[in-house]
Specification:
The chain is of the alpha+beta class and 174 residues long. The protein has one domain (2-173): START domain (Alpha-D-Glucose-1,6-Bisphosphate, Chain A, domain 4), CATH 3.30.530. Helices cover 36% and strands 36% of the residues. Strands 1-7-6-5-4-3-2 form a seven-stranded antiparallel β-sheet. It is elongated, with a radius of gyration of 19 Å. This is Polyketide cyclase / dehydrase and lipid transport.
């Protein structure tokens, strides 16, 4: 009985230590320069429906079911999806626009697990080109935070961001 109590105590202590040292937040971003004027790039990026043209997740499930609420390009617009195991189920809501600077949205995932992240598409002048920065950030809640000790969010989605930005560049430079 005492051995079981010690084992239980050690397990609880281990979980507490892991929870303390686990990363509490994440911020992943990638950027690319596009040979188009900033206002033209920004007008394309502000429409969430355009993401279907360059998002890596649209390719991971071409049969994804999408629904839309509100007016695309305006705060409050929601794009919801139900897809295969690669894309899950969730929604993206447009929560902020600073003209010719940034489009902010909130990502809410329902499946395969619940989470919430803040996404952004920033644009900056880069000489005669436009630099696009695509990223997302959020907080790791317990017990997911412990999993993040063994999973690198940057490695998990960084390549997807690079793929999407390269596709965006190809589309906009045509």
């Amino acid at each position: 009985m005492i051995i079981a109590l010690y084992v239980l105590l050690i397990l609880v202590l281990l979980i507490v230590i892991l929870a303390i040292i686990a990363p509490k937040s994440y911020d992943v971003s990638r950027s690319i320069s596009i040979n188009k004027p900033l206002p033209e790039v920004f007008q394309y990026l502000r429409l969430i429906k355009n993401q279907d043209n360059w998002s890596p997740w649209a390719e991971k499930d071409p049969n994804m079911k999408k629904t839309f609420t509100g007016t695309d390009g305006e705060i409050g617009f929601v794009s919801a999806w139900v897809g295969n195991k690669d894309v899950g189920e969730g929604e993206q809501e447009l929560i902020g626009i600073v003209e010719n600077e940034v489009v902010k949205s909130q990502l809410r995932f329902f499946k395969p697990w619940k989470s919430q992240s803040d996404a952004y598409l920033k644009v900056e002048e880069d000489g005669d080109r436009t630099k696009v920065i695509w990223g997302f950030s959020g907080n790791n809640k317990f017990p997911i935070s412990i999993m993040m000790l063994f999973m690198n969010m940057d490695k998990a989605v960084g390549k997807d961001f690079e793929f999407g930005l390269n596709k965006l560049k190809t589309i906009l430079e045509l």
